[in-house]
Amino acid sequence: MQRWMGRxxxxxxxxxxxxxxxxxxxxxxxxxxAVWAAPVEGGAPLVEHRADAAMNPASTxxxxxxxxxxxxxGPGYRWTTRLVSAAPIVDGVLQGDLYWVGxxxxxxxxxxxxxxxxxxxxxxxxxxxxxLLLDRSVWSGTGRADDFDGDAERAFMVAPDPxxxxxxxxxxxxxxxxxxxxxxxxxxLPGVSLSAKLSDGGAGACGDVRNRVAIRTAGDSISxxxxxxxxxxxxxxxxxxxxxxxxxxxxxxxAWRELGGTGPAGFGTAxxxxxxxxxxSHDSEPLxxxxxxxxxxxxxxxxxxxxLTLGHEEAPGSDTPAAAERAVRRTLxxxxxxxxxxxxxxGAGLSRRERVSARLLGQVLLAAARGxxxxxxxxxxxxxxxDGTLKKRFAxxxxxxxxxxxxxxDVRALAGxxxxxxxxxxxxxxxxxxxxxxxxxxxMDDIVADLIAQAGPHxxxxxxxxx
Length: 467
Description:
Blueprint lengths: L1 H9 L4 E2 L2 E2 L12 E7 L7 E3 L11 H13 L6 E5 L4 E2 L2 E2 L3 E4 L8 H13 L4 E2 L2 E5 L33 E9 L2 E7 L6 E8 L12 E6 L2 E8 L7 E5 L3 H15 L7 E4 L8 E6 L3 H10 L3 H15 L5 H15 L23 H13 L3 H6 L21 E8 L2 E9 L5 E9 L7 H15 L12
Parallel strand pairs: 7-9, 8-10, 10-17, 13-15
Antiparallel strand pairs: 1-2, 3-4, 3-21, 5-8, 5-18, 6-7, 11-12, 11-16, 14-15, 19-20, 20-21
Helix pairs in contact: 1-10, 2-5, 2-6, 2-7, 2-8, 3-4, 5-6, 6-7
Keywords: Carboxypeptidase, Hydrolase, Protease, Signal
Protein name: D-alanyl-D-alanine carboxypeptidase/D-alanyl-D-alanine-endopeptidase
EC number: 3.4.16.4
């Protein structure tokens, strides 16, 4: 903090209590960056540099979606996944088709699927004579994330899905004990082939196992090769495999087989018959838990699911992405925030098209911090030097700083709050757009640090003025 206080003494910051000074951009060009900061407890902004410019926010867009989700759905909102069938059960055999009615639960995993299928076994069903049919009618579509073709197989590109399971990734579990180096697939998807050529890597450290072995995926095949140190015994790495519906089918097959069930006889997609009896159901964790993972770890799939869920609740059966956009815009307008600079594609910031202004994002921060779910919203943000995407940043500032990060090619962004020792809070937004963005992370961090130093321990006290 001493080096930042030195900058304060040198008079290089913007303004405090009405005293204007030059904003130190730390090597950034004025047209590359937008900066906005204002006290949460009320008062005029401390800095407004290109605050109304339309900027690509990358993952700081998740804050807009999170704010809308808390307001429209509530922190206790849950997704319900159901297995239904109108077919009779005779001597432990379901005599017809079983429908998996998906809700898009963003954190539904293999354990949840085993528990769901276990309800069928507890009902006495041991065989599904008909087909497993996926009812995918909850959304009209999953929206778009265009111009990321080169990243199609990356886990962050997994699209939301009504039957999403394990975020559509499987895990590779590595072992190197008395039986030698080897790898297993978890869950054991029956249609995925796994081949491995692993040798003993000796007594060296493991670190990230993905740096020790080569993992390649192609359709329904996974190959692993390399030297596996003994310290990697128990290490895990995820892989993105299969198309969404095929991943769901094989996940169900693995769960049903683990439970000792037989069938189903086939597979497909169809809308469940109206009024079909519910044979099993699973309620998700509350939305608040999803927000934690969405923002702490910048999960694109979860953010896009929240966006689509807003659309489903806004207008069931309509164009879901369009309804989601209406819901977000209506939330902003109702809060008195102009949506003029807003461009939405999927609500996650995984977009070359999405735009906000620093002022809009800042006003969302102010509205969230002053609203009924302020604690829930702020608890979802990464804590500087401690967790999430800020675990290795701002260690000198520490836990008083909570900010959402944003990273894309040509984009770096930060948006969040600093809590002063006085107990008052400063909302801060810094967005960098341009071909040099990748190299300007440190400059962006320095701007944030300067604003914190400028505000000082008695941040915002007596800074009267309108918003």
